[in-house]
Amino acid sequence: MSTKLNRDDVIQNTVYDVYENYDESKSTVDEIILPERDKDKDPILDIRGLGIDFGGLTAVDEFTIAIGRTEIAGIIGPNGAGKTTIFNLLTKVYQPTRGTFLFDGVDTSGMTTTQISKMGIARTFQNIRLFDKLTVEENVKAAMHNEVSYGLASGIFHGPKYRKQEKAAHERALELLSIFDMQDMADYQASSLPYGAQRRLEIVRALATNPKVLLLDEPAAGMNPSETAELMNNIRKIRDTFGIAILLIEHDMSLVMNVCEGIAVLNFGRIIAKGTPEEIQNNPAVIEAYLGKKKEAK
Amino acid sequence: MKMQIKNGRLSPYTKNSIISYGLVIGAFVIVSILNSMGMVSSSLQGQLVPICCYIVMAVSLNLVVGISGELSLGHAGFMSAGAYTGIVVSGILETSGLPIYGRLAVAIICGAIVAGVLGFLIGIPVLRLRGDYLAIVTLAFGEIIKNIMNIVYAGKDSHGFHLKTNPDLGLEEGGRMLLNGPMGATQVQRISTFAAGFVLVLITLFVVQNIMNSKQGRAIMACRDNRIAAESIGLNVMKYKLMAFTVSAALAGMGGALFGLNYSTLLPVKFNFNTSVLILVFVVLGGLGNIWGSIIAATILTILPEALRQFADYRMLAYAIVLILVMIFTYSPKIKNFTQGFIDKNFKRKKPTAQTEGGGQV
Amino acid sequence: MIFLSNLINGLSLGSVYAIIALGYTMVYGISKMLNFAHGDVIMVGAYISFCGTAYLNLPAWASVILAMIVCTALGILIEGLAYRPLRGTGSLAVLITAIGVSYFLQNAALLIWGSAPKVFTSVFDKLGNSISLFDGELTITWEALFTLIAAVIIMVGMTLFTGKTKVGKAMRAVSEDNGAAQLMGINVNSTISMTFAIGSALAAIAGVLLCSSYPALMPTTGAMPGIKAFTAAVFGGIGSIPGAMLGGILIGVIEIFGRAFISSELSDAIVFGVLIIVLLVKPSGLLGKKITEKV
Amino acid sequence: MKSSFAKKFLVVCLAMVMVFTFAACGGSSEGGESEGGDAAGAVLKIGSSGPLTGGASIYGTAVKQGAEIAVAEINEANPDLQIEFKMEDDEADGEKAVNAYNKLKDWGIQMMMGTVTTGSCIATSAVTFEDRVFELTPSASSADVTAGKDNVFQVCFTDPNQGVKAADYITENMAGSKVGVIYNNSDAYSTGIFNAFKAEMEAKGGEIVAAETYPDDTNADYSAQLNSCKSAGADVVLLPIYYTPASVIMKQAKDMNYAPVFFGVDGMDGILDMEGFDTALAEGVMLMTPFNPWSTDENVASFVEKYQAAYNEVPNQFAADGYDGIYALYEAFKATGLGTDAANADICDAMIGQFTGGFSYDGLTGAAMTWNDKGEVNKTPVVCVIQDGIYVDQ
């Protein structure tokens, strides 16, 4: 099980080389939905009873799950169930009213979005949020601000440190873009990209922050089946390449059921079921949440 | 969709930088040559230094409005901080035996430092606000700076430098009043030169354009384009906005010092809301984030009222009409669509889809 | 007594700011633009009213109506010619155009009416002496009284108008969501014109009241009250009608009190200082809606 | 794309403006007439700058109109020495004033009769000093205007001079009165008078019970300041300000039943001509003015008549200053014996010689005006009181 590859390997190997080494059958999910291979390690995300109220309205409540270090997990649920709110809580766009979560064993209470990002949570957005007027490459490089460490003086005078780090950043950005085969678009203005490419660029940008957990908010929205299929491969590829955990929100059931190892189903802000894809597919509560009770359906 | 981006193609920043430097250096050379041939009118000659100042002001404001995306209506406040600092410093050094250029340089540097510190201090509270609220608070700070300059009195004599909020400085015989409250600075020795202005413009271009093409510039523009996304990738939005604001204020201080030392008198009223707006007009007309656009707009709009003198009483009316028409002409979607075909034919870009580019919106 | 007298003056000045701020706030609410020419519409209103009484020998009330009609037309004209072509291009382009319009109005007024200040005859002139209380210790001018009353009436009227009438509701709809309102069959263009018309008519009233209290009328008369009223609108929470009222009155009172009790040299600095503090504590103004961006 | 369009447009604009400016600077677009004049050898080019637009334009316009009357008179009376007068707008802004002066320089200015407002004049006088162009300002009254510049002279009193004279008058003729002052603290003129007034009052033992200021804001509310004066018991209120705010102050004082004696300085002149002003409000106002349009003086009467015929208004002090400025320059220039083809520097030196060498001029704003080497004028101030809508000399 060679889940941990270093980056250079990926750029040279193709996705499929990586996948051939990956034994899918071994990834089973237990009650706290950690894949077998992550069981002996602490979960990267340990979310405990997270909840938030807006005014008097409870948007999310008692949200408790754990995510393994290399797990691909999914959150599904009907519209308005509070899925994106959970992402906003995990990235501290909102501060939770109740509960907390541990990231890599560290309590995140009171942290800001910026701190969370520094610790290693990166995300994409349901409604794409790129830096529209920057080029594709700059979008990626902007996210690499931690490794590009020169100060304002270097930024103004463009000294040797600037040149060295900018060169490295340029190479790294192209490398990351090449995951999605976007290196040729590096000089395009981000807003001029086609929709699908914009979604991919968001993922690349998130990866550029060197995350340990990647949160994808409806990555397949607006994609056609072949693009979705490609995306599925890419999600797995990213996990395998970078050895990170991925938590995604998605409405496309084929994607969720195919890619995710653990799934949590949310309705009215609460988890109504969690388990492996098979378990979820057969769970009556889930079916009810999606299709409604019979008497209400008519 | 392969494009001709690779080999040898200049990045857009490099290209724009070259245009900016080229414009400035070219204009300097041409004007200098014409001047040596005696072909520059006194009218234009007298405006060379102010033009340089306004270019510095416009380019520095562009850093805040265009590149950082925050509407500031108080830029003249920083200009005045720089101007008065420059005047005081130059006044103190008058007897120091420093050569004029040395004095000018020290005055400009001090102006930049004071304005920069002021920008930093003001930026901390101001940048917590957004959009039009930020605009009104910058306006307020600009007015407050002006108001405070009205009660500052400074002078020097053999006992050294005096600074008070009332005119009784108790200067001894032979002492000199440097700042005289609402009467501003008078008897300023005029030491600004076109060459100094030219150097200052180059410094400003160097600073702003290099920042744009650096980690800091990317971060500043990222915060402008999408604050939430910028936070999500770990950018400290406040820090970068403050950085842009402070650098811009410092540059404005430089421009102010040059401006202040170009006239024998300077009233605090000069740096009111109208001046801030004037500079903003340069920036918007030149194009947000477009540095060489700012240079051209600042130059034209400084010369324009003078060029319109022959319209006498109708001069400012004509200026207003030109301003409105130019805004409508360059920004109206309808007129843009009308001219789009023409432009596409002539200046086709190598971009995959023809979405509107930067310029217009905040 | 000094306190009371200053308070009354503050309320009166504040009421004028409030009426001007109402215009700012409505226009801002509906088109998200800072209409810097608003202050100059005030000046035009005052000039028209002045001409009405001085040259056409109209009674005071008729000259006010004339001023309102002319300003309404002017407001619609400005919106249609200068602002409409730029709709949807972002607020900054419109802002600069508004500044151009402001220059235009000031210089046109200069050419038409000359630079010599006109002394505006108060529309309440006929009412005679001011009200004297406490053995003449405290005097209240008719201008102060009527300005305050007018401001209250206008605010209540505008609140009812935007709340109850069809046009008012359309305005609110457009200011909430331009696109959606259009889909609902609201004519956005005419609604925005309507808003400018109302804002400009209010500006005419404000101009008359302003110049009744402070009678020197010049082409630059509207500029500073315009900026102050703009500040007031933001202070109270731009887009909010009661906010404009509250902001205007507070700015007026703070200005007068600052001048009377702290320092007349720094009264503007005090006004703007208070504004800054309020905005730092309540970033969207006293009664402004908190703007939340959906993530 | 659109911004590229904007850029193209700007470039075209720039090109146009450049062509414009260089064409104008080519030196002689307006030179046709002036060259003709030079050939005749009898045209003297006097330039001026002042606010012709903007808030202060009333002053610039008055100076311009007064000067034009003088120019017309001279040109009619003396065919051998014609005066060409040109006034540029400076919006009362130092920067624009220097621009205006430079424009005049391109036009071929030989002497400067300006600048009208103080701040602008300080800015231009530094430049005329360097260029050696003789400058006589009609109305810029700060001491800074002339300080350190031998080529600059004033037609009007200096601000400190007025402040001192006002204090002297009040302590001598209105002894024991409690004085309140309301002045514009962002205006050099107003502050200059006040500071000198205060110092002189202290020296003479007068009592200032309230000194109130207001910012530069044409429609400010003065009730707070008036309240302070009233509660401090001031029975004389000095208004070292221009007449526009003064008219508002008088109205507001009446509204609050406060009736002190208002004491104005020369800036108060003009208040009676304000359109719509209720002159009853100004009844009893005292003011120091060098010019009384209701004076029975023959020259004054003739000037007032011509002025009214030409511009349909009563001339104020600024108009008279402008008129005097042109005449003083003309007379002094004749006395130098120089031709109009003399170099500016020579004219300047000769004129300085005249002005500091006992040259005396009888003008509308004072008889037997003489100048000291500091550039200050020596003439007697007149204190008038307003009665029945006209000035009556005290």
Please outline what is shown here.
Chain A is of the alpha/beta class.
Descriptive notes:
The complex is a heterotetramer of chains A (298), B (362), C (295) and D (394). Chain A is an alpha/beta fold and 298 residues long. Chain A has helices at 7-12, 15-20, 83-90, 113-119, 136-142, 152-157, 160-179, 195-208, 225-242, 253-259, 277-281, 284-291, 294-297; strands spanning 45-54, 57-67, 72-76, 98-103, 106-107, 121-123, 213-217, 245-249, 262-267, 270-275. Helix content of chain A is 39%, strand content 20%. Chain A has a six-stranded mixed beta sheet, sandwiched between helices. In chain A, strand 4 (98-103) and strand 5 (106-107) form a beta hairpin. Chain B has a domain at 48-272. Helix content of chain B is 66%, strand content 4%. Chain B has helices spanning 12-36, 42-67, 75-93, 100-126, 131-149, 194-212, 215-225, 227-232, 237-260, 273-286, 291-307, 315-331, 333-346; strands spanning 153-157, 160-164, 176-180. In chain B, strand 1 (153-157) and strand 2 form a beta hairpin. In chain B, helix 3 (75-93) runs parallel beside helix 5 (131-149) and helix 7 (215-225) packs across helix 9 (237-260). The longest helix of chain B has 27 residues, at 100-126. Chain B is globular, with a radius of gyration of 22 Å. Mean pLDDT of chain B is 85; it is low at 1-8 and 349-362. Chain C has one domain (2-128, 138-281): ABC transporter involved in vitamin B12 uptake, BtuC, CATH 1.10.3470. Chain C has eleven helices and four strands; from the N terminus they run H-H-H-H-E-E-E-H-H-H-H-E-H-H-H. Chain C has a two-stranded antiparallel ribbon with strand order 1-4. Chain C has a two-stranded antiparallel ribbon with strand order 2-3. In chain C, strand 2 (131-133) and strand 3 (138-140) form a beta hairpin. The radius of gyration of chain C is 19 Å and the shape is globular. Chain D has two domains: 41-157 and 304-378, Response regulator (Rossmann fold), CATH 3.40.50.2300; 160-289, 3-Layer(aba) Sandwich (Rossmann fold), CATH 3.40.50.2300. Chain D is 47% helix and 19% strand. Chain D has helices at residues 2-25, 31-40, 57-77, 94-107, 118-131, 159-173, 188-204, 223-231, 243-255, 298-311, 317-336, 344-356, and strands at residues 43-50, 82-89, 111-112, 134-137, 152-154, 178-184, 207-214, 236-239, 261-264, 286-289, 361-363, 366-371, 377-378, 382-387, 390-393. A seven-stranded mixed beta sheet of chain D has the order 7-6-8-9-10-14-15, sandwiched between helices. A five-stranded parallel beta sheet of chain D has the order 2-1-3-4-5, with helices on both faces. The relative contact order of chain D is 0.12. Classes of the chains: A alpha/beta (298), B mainly alpha (362), C mainly alpha (295), D alpha/beta (394). Chains in contact: A-B, B-C, B-D, C-D. The interface between B and D is large, with 67 and 56 residues.
